[in-house]
Structures are given as C-alpha cells and as structure tokens.
Amino acid sequence: MTQINKGFSKLSKEEKIDWIVSQYFTNPQEAKQTVTQYWNSDENIQKLHDEFIENTISNFYLPLGVAPNFIINGKNYTIPMAVEESSVVAAVAKAAKFWSERGGFKATVLNTEKIGQVHFLFSGNFEKLNSFFQSIKTQFFADTENFTKNMQKRGGGILDIALVDKTNELPNYYQLHATFNTKDSMGANFINTCLEQFAKTLENQAQQNEAFSEEEKKIQIIMSILSNYVPNCVVRAEVFCPVEQLSDDANIDSKEFAEKFVTAIKIAEIEPYRAVTHNKGIMNGIDAVVLATGNDFRAIEAGAHAYASRNGKYSSLSHAKIENGIFTFWIDIPLALGTIGGLTNLHPLVKFSLEMLGKPNAEELMKIVAVTGLAQNFAAVRSLTTTGIQKGHMKMHLMNILNQHHATKQEKQQVLDYFTNTTISHSLVVDYLEKIRS
Ligand code: MEV
Predict the structure, then answer these.
(1) Is 380 touching ligand 1 by the criterion CB < 6 Å?
(2) How many C-beta atoms surround the C-beta of residue 392 within 10 A?
C-alpha cells in the first residue's frame, strides 16, 4: 500500500514527481518523461504556472481555438475558446457566420449586482436584533472603508446590507445579506474581505450592546462568503430575422425549421432531462470563453444552473418565439465576470485573449460570453432538428479516432477522403483503417 507522505508539499517539484512515479507507476521512467515533457522551456513562464497552485508538477494543455465573425452590437469579434470537445469551435464559428449575415447578435447587460452573506446564530427575538442592526448599519460601511475606498473610486462598492430572518428554516439562523457592485473585477476577494469585516463588526458591536442579555451578546458567526448565485447580474443576448431567412440550406424549409426549432426550445423549457443537455450545450460555449479569459468557470456553471431552476423546476436558459413573421432566439444568463484582477493580468494566454477581444470591460465580456452561449446553442439545436448531431460531431471527432490508432499522415488523408460523404462511426473508421493497412 502507498505510504502517507506527510511532508509532500515541502518537497521540490522533481522530488514530488519522483515520489509519485515510484509509488503509482509500473514504468516510473516513462511516467516521469510523460509529465516533464509538458514543462515550458521558458523558466519564467513555467515558474508562473508553478505558482498558480500548490503541488504543481506539470502543465495540463487544452487547445485554445478561436471563433471569428461574431458581430455583437455592430462590432466584429474573434472569440477565444479553451475547450477539448472536438466539434464545439467549428459549430459555434458556423453559427457566428450565419448570424453575421442576418444582422449579428444584440446583447444587453440587465444588471450587475453581486451578493455576499454573513451567516450567524442569535438566540433572541428578531425585533431586538433588527433594531440593533439598524443602529449599527453605518458602522459596517465605516469599518470597511479601507477596502472600499479604491472600489468606490472606480464607481463600485457596497450597495446595501440587509438583515434576514431565516429562523423558520433553521433555529436562531439569521443573515447579513449584502449586495455589491464590483465594476470590472469579478470581486470575490473584495466581497469576502468586506464580509469578514462585517462579521467582526457584528460580533464586537453585539458584545457592547447594552440592550442585549448576556446570551444575546454572544452572536455566533458561522461563516462569511460571497454567493455564486447572482440572479441580478444578468445579461441578455438575442438574434432575430424574418422566418423565411432562417434556412441557408436548399434542402431545409425555413418555416418548417423555425417551427421545429421553437418546439425544441419549448421541450427544453418544460422537460428537465432535455433542459440539462440543452444547457450543457450552452455551457460548451460559455465555459470555453470564460476559461480563455481567465475567469472561474465553476462559479459560472453553478450560478447558471441555479438560475435555470429559479422557478422551482430546472428549465432551459434560452427561449425562442415566432411573432409577426419574425423568428427571435434569446438567452438570459447570470455571469459574474471580471476583466481585471485574478488571472487576467497574469496568464500570458489570458492577456492575449483579452487583447484579441479589444480589452473589454466586465460588461462587454458578459455580452461576448452570453452571445457565445447563444450561438453554441443555436448550432446544437439546428443540428439536432435537421441533420442530427452525429454528422458534425463525428466529422470533428474523426481526427481523435485516427490519432488514437496512430494513423500516419497518408492514412489520415485516405480516411478523410473516404468518409467525406459517408456516415462516420468509431467502428467504421477503425474497420476502414484496418482495410487500408492490410
Ligand atoms: C454536446 O456536447 C452538446 C449537445 O448535446 C447539446 C444539445 O443537445 O443541445 C449537442
């Protein structure tokens, strides 16, 4: 059995690798070679990556692709996407080109409010706590002035702090529910720093409050943390065109396609099993841009799926309608993104991605990301309701199958030629490859 290694984090990078390969691999030399071959030859870049996290042993590559021809509010963008799934970039790029010929995408930020909470226990009644809270409310702002000064200069800061009674759901449980504007930063550190100060202020002030009994003075702070659920930090992206312009394929009738498309969206609105896959398709695009621009895709994922359930049943994030001969397709999605702070100024490829996007502010990035999600969703639902998803997917996946089977350049070309107009499946490709080889 592998020994517990208590001093692991103190080992050098090379010692860590040596320990790992000796413990877990049948061929330690080969394993070491695999992991070290991804080290960057530029020591400074490698050091930067080593220091992003604890116990770095190597770099884990994802392809960085780009999707050109996105017209958003009249401006042309090439969008960076870090993603491993074969057909994602090809599909979204096709949708971008399609809509660029129909007026492009429109995007509007609906609001930008972030949220954080101090969760605490208080063993007294709400009225007493509330009058204490109202009497010290300005103190929360005063005690956080050191942290909020800079944010206020940029036009942001703490918007409000409310006391919330949750004792119906958990005995003695209350919250300070605070709202923030963090401008161009995602704001996690700013919010959490403010919240931890609110908690200290609350505790200290309660101890000094003459109106509280000894028991009531002992407010117990459970935790202070931002919420990744941001239903008031939402952006809308939309496309529209006359129904008769919805098909660019002579084999697909525009009206029939528009109606089928709207029905597919209605199904995702009412059927959770479909909604999850439908929204996963949206997140294919969203996560890829979020990752390429140095933002936290787990936060975005968690917030998006919570928003998709906000009416008590998991549902589609996108919607579609036909009204007066116009097809409209849109998405409302919460996106707490930043274009300063975090990795944005640190990771060279993130800097590259943001510069390629014209150094957007947070609101502009929200629009770009929402549009990418909508375009990705359009591409998926169009394939699903017309040709089926496998045609495009397998075409892109073909190269993965060929690489898995170590096909040579010549073999790849032969296989690509053969499958140009033939249904692709893993087994058909392998059979054909074997046929060539024999
Ligand atoms: C695959 O990654 C995403 C899709 O399943 C999305 C969808 O079904 O809408 C194609």
Answers:
(1) yes
(2) 19
